[in-house]
């Protein structure tokens, strides 16, 4: 398995790999708004819809059979810890968007998750190969508390932009705010600008 190192992504945003005000941790803390939801491998589906040419629906086996990549990337939590060199395996956002055919009037994205969590980003912030729908961390199936079966990772943004337990992506023609974005966390969430709160 080849691993692509994308930990130099910070060069686009700041001088230091560790964003301002962050501390490195070797642990992987768990942060969720509630309990870890349960899921059933036979019933779980992932959907892509909204402003797309083709609505998509995948079972777990179908999704994990799509073309995938493994990347080494960093993870920055808005509460101040960063975990460097995480290896995530999954489907890139641009690949998924390509399969659905994103319409020209799509400007924004809402991610939906099994626990009712939502988070939003402009389409252009999602259209980078480092935004992954991932099912494996360090070559092991993603642990339930970290978002298994499937989560999003957004190494260019604070980690609340990455929905754990993601089961849907919706393309929108107008911006909307997700769970934390409605409750005071920054809508833009740039770690190098310390965009923590709005
Ligand atoms: N579905 C869902 N995704 C979520 C959350 C959540 O509560 N529910 N919390 C977010 C927050 S605030 C953070 S910091 C990261 C934490 O990921 P971790 O628990 O794997 O460290 O997940 C994000 N994604
Ligand atoms: Mo968070």
TrEMBL record:
<feature type="region of interest" description="Disordered">
    <location>
        <begin position="1"/>
        <end position="27"/>
    </location>
</feature>
<dbReference type="Pfam" id="PF00174">
    <property type="entry name" value="Oxidored_molyb"/>
</dbReference>
<dbReference type="InterPro" id="IPR036374">
    <property type="entry name" value="OxRdtase_Mopterin-bd_sf"/>
</dbReference>
<protein>
    <submittedName>
        <fullName>Molybdopterin-dependent oxidoreductase</fullName>
    </submittedName>
</protein>
<dbReference type="InterPro" id="IPR000572">
    <property type="entry name" value="OxRdtase_Mopterin-bd_dom"/>
</dbReference>
<feature type="domain" description="Oxidoreductase molybdopterin-binding">
    <location>
        <begin position="34"/>
        <end position="180"/>
    </location>
</feature>
<feature type="compositionally biased region" description="Acidic residues">
    <location>
        <begin position="1"/>
        <end position="14"/>
    </location>
</feature>
């Amino acid at each position: 398995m080849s691993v692509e190192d994308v930990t130099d992504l910070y060069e686009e945003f700041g001088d230091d790999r560790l964003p301002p005000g962050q501390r490195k941790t070797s642990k992987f803390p768990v942060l969720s708004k509630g309990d870890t939801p349960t899921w059933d491998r036979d019933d779980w589906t992932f959907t892509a819809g909204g402003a797309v040419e083709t609505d998509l629906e995948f079972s777990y086996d179908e999704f994990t059979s799509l073309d995938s990549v493994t990347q080494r990337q960093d993870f920055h939590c808005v509460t101040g810890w960063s975990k460097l060199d995480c290896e995530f395996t999954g489907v890139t956002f641009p690949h998924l968007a390509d399969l659905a055919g994103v319409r020209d009037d799509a400007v924004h994205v809402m991610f939906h998750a099994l626990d009712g969590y939502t988070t939003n980003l402009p389409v252009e912030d999602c259209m980078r190969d480092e935004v992954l729908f991932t099912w494996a961390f360090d070559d092991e199936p993603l642990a339930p508390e970290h978002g298994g079966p499937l989560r999003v990772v957004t190494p260019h943004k604070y980690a609340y932009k990455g929905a754990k337990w993601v089961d849907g992506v919706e393309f929108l023609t107008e911006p909307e705010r997700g769970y934390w974005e409605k409750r005071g966390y920054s809508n833009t969430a740039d770690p190098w600008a310390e965009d923590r709160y709005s």
